[in-house]
Specification:
Length: 416
């Protein structure tokens, strides 16, 4: 190592061997996946071991040796992408296209021309008064993100408590965990996607074994910063102090690189970023004799009446320590004396659809059979037949007996 460094630097510094020994002591294997970290360590070691007087002539580089990056420790069977060239080939992009989609020039947050952006922006109203911002990637970036989702992120397992956006799990499996419990405690996380910053996403890709440069590029491809012009165009709450505070908090989160709500990769990355949160909350639930599961930003606990004690404070503290904020205004404690609902599913005895929803669908089917389906399609649903079949299938998945009754009513409708 000292010999190679001596061939690069001129004049040859006296401290080369000492620095080489320090590097070998610090790194038991070559850090081929961490050139930036290694460079910073060497610079700090040189400063500590060989402080140079102002008048000393520093060595200069007379020849360059290009490093060959390599994958680090791989915990999962993800694609091996040791360099940016490998990443470009994996995504079927040229180097220029990769730089453009990764926004190497930072145009997304500064340009006024929408054609130079990789995202389109829209907003949806929320009952709280603070809007929900949707960041939709354009076709080119969306295709790359879908490839990353299916060929990379799907190979990394989420925590067992995560039921949203996980193959084989659903809102039904989430709700079924809490059926027939004495107490159900439900909490919500504020701005779930926006609160997950780029640094955490970079950590996920580094944990996969990707070298620093590749992890930075993957992070850039899957995170975004909301342009200031897009933020200025959003409606602002005027009177409700709580909504105004939430709006400003959302603005701060969107002004830094974060997971965009609307990108195909964001749900999977959010689950991975919340792995430690899920692990800690699952441990807390087990210590209380309770059950915990999460569907996106919806945290649900169920178990004995001890959940009515200090559990909420502990949950909020753990969420805060893991970089999330529990929304106190959306916390609900439900006992068996009333209706217990998890993501819209009634769980008092077993997963079931709410009675009013069942009665509404039954009435629609009855009137459609009597007056014709067109008269009941007041919302102008394009494929009303498929729409009704989907709603019936949902009821049947929760309560097969009710689903069978609704199906009989559906068969009486004359679609001709």
């Amino acid at each position: 190592m000292a010999r190679r460094a001596g061939a690069i630097l001129e004049p040859r510094p006296r401290w080369l061997r000492a620095v080489a020994r320090a590097v070998i002591d610090a790194y038991h294997r070559p850090p081929d996946d961490r050139p930036r970290e290694l460079a910073a360590f060497i610079a700090a070691t040189i400063e500590a071991l060989a402080p140079r007087p102002r008048e000393a002539k520093p060595p200069h580089v007379r020849r360059w040796i290009v490093p060959e990056p390599a994958m680090g420790t791989m915990r999962w069977p993800v694609p091996q992408l040791a360099s940016l060239a490998d990443l470009a080939a994996f995504a079927e992009l040229s180097h220029g296209q990769l730089d453009w989609l990764a926004d190497a020039r930072g145009l997304e947050r500064t340009v006024a021309d929408e054609r130079l952006r990789n995202y389109r922006y829209l907003w949806l109203p929320r009952a709280s008064g603070c809007v929900r911002v949707i960041e939709r990637p354009k076709r080119g970036l969306k295709e790359v993100q879908r490839r990353l989702l299916h060929d990379l992120l799907d190979l990394i397992p989420a925590h067992d408590a995560a039921h949203g956006f996980v193959r084989g799990r659903s809102v039904r499996t989430h709700a079924a965990q809490h059926a027939g419990r004495k107490v159900v405690l439900r909490l919500d996380l504020e701005d779930f996607f926006a609160s997950i910053q780029a640094g955490r996403i970079y950590g996920i890709f580094r944990t996969c074994g990707y070298p620093e440069a590749v992890a930075h590029a993957l992070t850039a491809l899957t995170t975004n910063v909301l342009p200031s012009r897009a933020w200025a165009a959003l409606p602002r709450p005027r009177e409700d102090l709580r909504a105004i505070t939430a709006h400003h908090a959302l603005g701060r989160r969107l002004a830094t690189a974060h997971l965009p709500q609307g990108a195909p990769t964001s749900p999977a990355l959010a689950n991975l970023a919340a792995f430690r949160l899920d692990r800690r909350l699952a441990g807390l639930a087990a210590s209380l004799g309770a059950v915990y599961s999460r569907y996106a930003d919806d945290l649900t606990f169920s178990g004995p009446r001890t959940l009515l004690g200090e559990a909420r404070a502990w949950i909020a503290q753990i969420a805060r320590e893991e970089g999330f904020t529990a929304n106190d205004h959306k916390t609900a404690v439900m006992t068996r004396a009333g209706r217990q609902r998890v993501c819209g599913i009634v769980v008092n005895d077993g997963p079931n659809v709410a009675r009013e929803q069942y009665d509404e669908l039954k009435a629609i089917l009855h009137n459609a059979a009597r007056n014709g389906p067109a008269a009941e399609n007041r919302a102008g649903v394009p494929d009303f037949r498929a729409h009704l079949l989907g709603r019936i299938a949902w009821v049947a998945s929760l309560n097969p007996a009710r689903g069978a009754k609704l199906r009989l009513r559906f068969e009486r409708i004359d679609w001709d």
